[in-house]
Write a structure and sequence with these properties.
With 226 residues, the protein is an alpha/beta fold. It is 30% helix and 28% strand.
Length: 226
């Protein structure tokens, strides 16, 4: 996939914006509601679910498909409000420009401190770890299979484009490479749920469950690494 310059801001059903990528033929978030999807699938069903079951003053998250940064912003803002130390790594092969992210309007959903700190440090985060509000952020500018980490993560947000558009992100090699970066007891969440994905995760040592999906989707997938 090559990143097209033909990216445009579009509104979703809950009033929040996303970006449409004409090269891929898909939005970065659900057209039924970008904000609702990010909160439900990733923040609530991912990080908050993990923290509810593993109370701790810190959490580490890996996001596959950093995109607009909405999942990070919501997670960082929640952690700042609740005195949780967040270490967040995003993988993004085709980073958006700071200008494009600034046009999303996501500043209205988070604190001004988190938003301004994110925009100020975004370009630097593509090169090294930076502080955004009280959270550490690093965005790995690489393909998924090129990414490696010395440490493992508590939660993985798997937010790649749908398999119909990016099948290489959902095959066994990609999923196995991703989940080996997760700690035992860690949580893998994604908006999608297919029989093939469930079978792959079970074969890789996960307890897989169907969870209620975000608006527009009946179900989503959450898996715990055994």
């Amino acid at each position: 996939m090559t990143m097209s310059t033909e990216l445009k801001i579009v509104s979703t059903a809950d009033g929040s914006n996303t970006i449409y990528n004409s090269a891929v033929g898909e939005n970065y978030h659900s057209r039924h509601g970008a904000l609702q999807e990010s909160k439900h699938v990733f923040l609530n069903s991912g990080m908050r679910y993990y923290l509810d079951n593993n109370p701790a003053p810190s959490a580490s998250i890996l996001e596959v498909g950093f995109g607009t940064g909405l999942n990070f912003l919501l997670s960082a803002d929640y952690c700042a409000e609740n005195q949780i130390k967040l270490n967040y790594t995003g993988i993004e092969a085709y980073p958006l420009t700071e200008e494009m992210i600034g046009q999303t309007g996501y500043d209205q959903y988070i604190s001004q401190k988190t938003w301004s700190s994110f925009l100020d440090r975004y370009a630097e985060a593509l090169k090294t770890a930076v502080q955004v509000n009280s959270c550490q952020l690093q965005i790995a500018h690489c393909q998924l299979l090129e990414f490696n980490s010395q440490g493992q993560f508590d939660v993985i947000y798997f937010d790649a484009f749908a398999a119909i558009h990016q099948p290489e992100m959902w095959n066994e090699e990609a999923i196995a490479h991703t989940v080996q970066l997760l700690k035992p007891g860690g949580i893998f969440v994604t908006y999608a749920i297919t029989g093939n994905l469930k079978r792959m995760l079970k074969s890789l040592g996960f307890k897989v469950e169907k969870a209620t999906g975000a608006p527009g989707k009946r179900e989503m997938l959450r898996a715990v690494k055994l």
